[in-house]
Write a structure and sequence with these properties.
Elements lengths: L1 E4 L2 E3 L5 E7 L9 E6 L6 E6 L6 E3 L7 E6 L4 E6 L8 E8 L9 E2 L5 E5 L2
Parallel strand pairs: 2-11
Antiparallel strand pairs: 1-3, 3-8, 4-5, 4-9, 5-6, 7-8, 9-10, 9-11
Length: 120
């Protein structure tokens, strides 16, 4: 299970840093993904980091603005979000991949999510 935190209300162009702390397992052997779901829309995977932290993948919608990182000793993954836009408004979740790499497979062990709202 994950616990996400760090969400809130921010103005367009602002920044937030989300945290995703794993409990009940050691996340160091798993790839971790960040997802988001806006009202009325499907859940979107937009960032993933492999188990070692040396490879990251981003969707085009966040590339260049968001950075995913991890600190395995703290059992935590982070998401630095810069230049936020109103269309980034959503509930943000992290999840564990079934393996060490982001390609293929499925994600599970969802947290409760943290709300990010971007508006003037």
């Amino acid at each position: 299970q994950f616990v996400e935190s760090g969400g809130g209300l921010v103005q367009p162009g602002g920044s937030l840093r989300l945290s995703c702390e794993a409990s009940g397992f050691k996340m160091e052997v798993y790839a971790i993904g960040w997802f988001r779901q806006a009202p009325g829309k499907e859940r979107e995977e937009f960032a993933c980091i492999n188990s070692s932290g040396f490879r990251t993948d981003y969707s085009d919608s966040v590339k260049g603005r968001f950075t995913i990182s991890r600190e395995n000793a703290m059992n935590t993954v982070y998401l630095q979000m810069n230049n936020l836009k109103p269309e980034d408004t959503a509930v943000y979740y992290c999840a564990r991949h079934g393996g060490s790499y982001c390609a293929g497979g499925t994600f599970g062990s969802w947290g409760q999510g943290t709300q990010v709202t971007v508006r003037a």
